[in-house]
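Q: what sequence does this backbone want?
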């Protein structure tokens, strides 16, 4: 490799976002060296052969769980783009493996950086997720970084992303950035109907990100940093990543666009509204989503209708066969197929109702009475029409519990104590260097009464709080936490009743008849 060039190390290049990132980085190989960590398999070797024979790319055949493989990638690198890990749909039924993979991978990366004495030199780019802030339906459908971390019940993937992100923030590595990516739109998403389809409330929202934008995002970080344009306005920060206002969609709007681009009947002829959950998924509009675009200029800004037309032209022909068959034949057949998916054993919403799965019903509906209130026909179901302009978002933002009009360099111990109080706890430290958001302080949780250390950056800018009860490593106890934590209650009370008192223990919800999910599915 050319020692005069900067070296980029990437993980996850065989995945959806990683492949797009690789395609966008290749035109810049005259400026950088590129190393890729790829899990060894016949499928991945076939994929990589298209690149390593044509370009001067170093391939490390290994695994994120193998420290030596990770160390090989970290050595002599200037940038690390950690895109890899377990994602849906494979991770959906593998909670323990998902946690092990996604958290251990980050631990291996940070360990290698520190062991190489490069914590002040290497730049680490981590791909987070919108799932980290959980269910944000109306009227909490607008959000920004610093909002409460809230991991939806059963969402072990989001838990793994939270644990990994917080580890990076507190690792001592100077130049990191966490990019909390929204849902990615890509051609294969049009054929990925699973039970998870019905976990999404029909009035739920997302500010989607196109796969093309996600790839440009990665290459633009390299381009702009090599120009010297990325500094404290980028490194050491959290960003929400979406494709902008045009891509702010309710789930109803998203499904309608999907059906239209495939030439399918209207979704009202295929779905029934009471197949969909009322809560406990994830997603919101990004009030601060344009911040990253202003720095990196990665968006294509194609109107959403045009994007879906292009998407439809990229999918396999068989997915569009419904457009050539009379709708009076297609609609009932498709509805029957979709209903079977909603009855998927243990994961489908209709399966929960049929077998009176009380834990699932309480998490996603509240109780069976709330489910029974959902109309079975669309003419009686209220579809929300939401204003997608940023100006409208101002009316729905969360309070972060301190004076956000102050410059970061002016934040002091009084701001920390005020923020802790709003989280139902205390800041036990008596002093801090003004503006120092990196040095850890001592805090006390008002719910579990335990003390913990954390940086102001993690608490104020990341939206975190107590690692013992607030982050559901052992159990989700949000109903009770919300009663003592006004900060968190903002994103809980809007669709939960005060008399709810549910506790979901991790090892119980992911175990059936004494067998862990990982061994069942």
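A:
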């Amino acid at each position: 490799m050319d020692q005069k060039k900067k070296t980029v190390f990437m993980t996850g290049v065989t995945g959806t976002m990683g492949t797009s990132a690789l395609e966008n980085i290749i035109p810049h190989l005259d400026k950088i060296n590129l190393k890729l960590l790829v899990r060894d398999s016949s499928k991945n070797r076939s994929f990589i052969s298209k690149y390593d024979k044509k370009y001067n790319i170093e391939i490390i055949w290994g695994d994120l769980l193998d420290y030596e493989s990770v160390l090989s990638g970290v050595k002599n690198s200037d940038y690390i783009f950690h895109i890899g890990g377990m994602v849906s749909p494979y991770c959906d039924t593998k909670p323990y493996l998902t946690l092990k993979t996604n958290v251990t991978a980050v631990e291996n990366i940070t360990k290698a950086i520190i062991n190489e004495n490069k914590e002040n030199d290497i730049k680490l780019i981590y791909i987070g997720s919108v799932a980290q802030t959980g269910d944000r339906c109306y009227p909490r459908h607008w959000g920004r970084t610093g909002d409460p971390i809230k991991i939806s019940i059963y969402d072990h993937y989001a838990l793994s992303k939270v644990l990994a992100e917080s580890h990076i923030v507190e690792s001592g590595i100077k130049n990191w950035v966490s990019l909390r990516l929204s849902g990615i739109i890509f051609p294969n998403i049009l054929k990925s109907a699973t039970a998870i389809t019905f976990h999404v409330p029909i009035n739920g929202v997302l500010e989607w990100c196109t796969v093309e934008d996600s790839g440009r995002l990665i290459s633009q970080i390299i381009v702009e940093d090599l120009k010297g344009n990325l500094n404290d306005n980028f490194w050491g920060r959290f960003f929400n990543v979406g494709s902008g206002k045009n891509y702010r969609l309710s789930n109803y709007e998203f499904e309608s666009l999907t059906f239209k681009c495939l030439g399918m009947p209207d979704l009202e002829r295929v779905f029934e509204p009471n197949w969909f959950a009322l809560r406990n998924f994830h997603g919101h509009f990004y009030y601060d989503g344009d911040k990253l675009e202003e720095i990196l200029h990665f968006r294509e800004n194609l109107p959403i209708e045009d994007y879906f037309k292009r998407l439809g032209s990229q999918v396999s022909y068989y997915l569009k066969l419904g457009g050539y068959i009379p709708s009076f034949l297609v609609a009932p057949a498709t509805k029957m197929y979709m209903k079977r998916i909603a009855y998927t054993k243990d994961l489908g919403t209709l399966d929960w109702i049929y077998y009176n799965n009380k834990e699932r019903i309480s998490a996603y509906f509240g109780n069976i009475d709330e489910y029974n209130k959902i109309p079975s026909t669309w003419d009686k179901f209220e579809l929300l029409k939401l204003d997608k302009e940023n100006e409208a978002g101002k009316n729905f933002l969360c309070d972060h519990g301190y004076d956000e009009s102050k410059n970061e360099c002016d934040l002091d111990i009084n701001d920390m104590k005020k923020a802790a109080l709003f989280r139902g706890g205390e800041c036990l430290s008596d002093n801090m260097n003004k503006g120092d958001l990196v040095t850890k302080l001592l805090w006390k949780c008002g719910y579990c009464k335990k003390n913990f250390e954390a940086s102001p950056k993690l608490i104020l800018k990341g939206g975190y709080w107590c690692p013992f009860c607030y982050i559901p490593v052992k159990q989700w106890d949000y109903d009770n936490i919300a009663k003592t934590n006004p900060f968190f209650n903002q994103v809980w009370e809007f669709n939960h009743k005060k008399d709810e008192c549910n506790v979901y223990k991790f090892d119980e919800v992911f175990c059936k008849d004494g067998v862990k999910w990982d061994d069942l599915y």
